[in-house]
From TrEMBL:
It comes from Polyangium spumosum. The chain crosses the membrane at residues 35-56, 63-82, 102-124, 136-160, 166-190, 202-224, 236-256. It comes from the Bacteria. It is a multi-pass membrane protein. Residues 266-276 have a biased composition (Basic and acidic residues). Residues 266-308 are annotated as: Disordered. This is YihY/virulence factor BrkB family protein. Its main location: membrane. Keywords: Cell membrane, Membrane, Transmembrane, Transmembrane helix. One of its GO terms (cellular component) is plasma membrane. It is found in: Cell membrane.
Length: 308
């Protein structure tokens, strides 16, 4: 049986951990970085719909079912708007995607990943990659994520159609969630370079990210459907505003997951002016217990996260 002192200690530790997380998210300008990531994702949506419509042009019924499954987590206004654009593009008889256009789509869609990589390099106090290398890594991640997301969606559809029971629906929900969690864990592992002596943490941040995505999408969908009146403020741009805000929330969730991993690995930013406030009592003490600062070649002025 836990006594009051033990419960109070756990609550105090949880408060310090949460405060340290928020403090470092603010230090690393996570809201601004999320804005850049959301804008990059927004720019890549229409080319993505064009590629999907071109690939699924001859599978109309399957395309409709697949798209409905992919957009089910989005707010209603977003699902409706993207669905209309998808079928408008897929019905175009003269749809032609030149190699240059496809390369341009991949370049734009990788911009958000490149921005996230830059933020994570700052979070983990890593040696920064050149901008072109971040772009190439982001491009590879996009190319690897497209078939994985398609596989997760097909698995969910297959289990739903084959069983139709509560157990089948549960498997249909958990299967894609596990694949998505593995994708996020791989993203954290591949985009962040750490010394071999450091014990890496990728799964806690991946689980936090996917959980926040599910919570944010559900709550935001209810909010948009029942409370929000975006059309009053934005008029015909209401769907665009909803989509951008939703993408911003998803981007923030990804950065939160990365910061969780950084804190579990014991990373402390050398640009932090007041780290002692959020340290646990055991960590407060001689400076020698803190990890040594990185080499001078790694230290750099705090940069503002933005899209290249």
């Amino acid at each position: 049986m836990w006594d009051r002192r033990h419960v109070s200690g756990l609550a105090s530790s949880a408060f310090r951990a949460l405060g340290r997380l928020v403090h470092y998210l603010d230090l690393h300008e996570a809201p601004r970085a999320a804005s850049a990531m959301a804008f990059d994702a927004f720019l890549s949506i229409i080319p993505l719909l064009a590629v999907a419509g071109w690939a699924l042009h001859r599978l109309r019924n399957a395309a409709a079912e697949l798209l409905g499954s992919l957009l089910s987590a989005a707010p209603p206004a977003v699902s409706a708007a993207l669905g209309e654009d998808f079928f408008r593009i897929s019905d175009a008889k003269a749809l032609v995607l030149a190699p240059v256009g496809l390369i341009a789509f991949l370049w734009v869609s990788s911009a958000g990943a490149a921005t996230a990589i830059g933020v994570f390099e700052t979070m983990f106090v890593c040696a920064p990659r050149p901008w072109w290398k971040r772009r190439l890594v982001g491009l590879g991640l996009v190319l690897g994520a497209i078939p994985a997301v398609g596989l997760a969606t097909l698995i969910g559809l297959a289990f739903t159609q084959l069983t139709g029971s509560i157990g089948g629906a549960l498997v249909a929900a958990l299967g894609p969630a596990l694949i998505l969690t593995a994708l996020i864990a791989a993203f954290f592992r591949l985009t962040i370079t750490r010394p071999p002596s450091v014990r890496r943490r990728v799964w806690p941040g991946a689980i936090v990210t996917v959980s926040l995505w599910a919570i944010v999408s559900t709550v935001f969908s209810i909010y948009v459907r029942s409370l929000a009146r975006y059309a009053t403020l934005y008029g015909t741009l209401a769907n665009v505003a909803v989509l951008l805000f939703w993408l911003w929330l998803l981007s923030i969730a990804l950065l939160v997951g990365g910061e969780v991993n950084a804190q579990l690995e014991g990373v402390r930013d050398p640009h932090d002016d007041m780290p002692e406030r959020w340290l646990t009592p055991k960590a407060e003490g001689p400076r020698s217990i803190q990890p040594p600062p990185p080499p001078e070649s790694i230290l750099r002025p705090k940069r503002t996260a933005s899209s290249e």
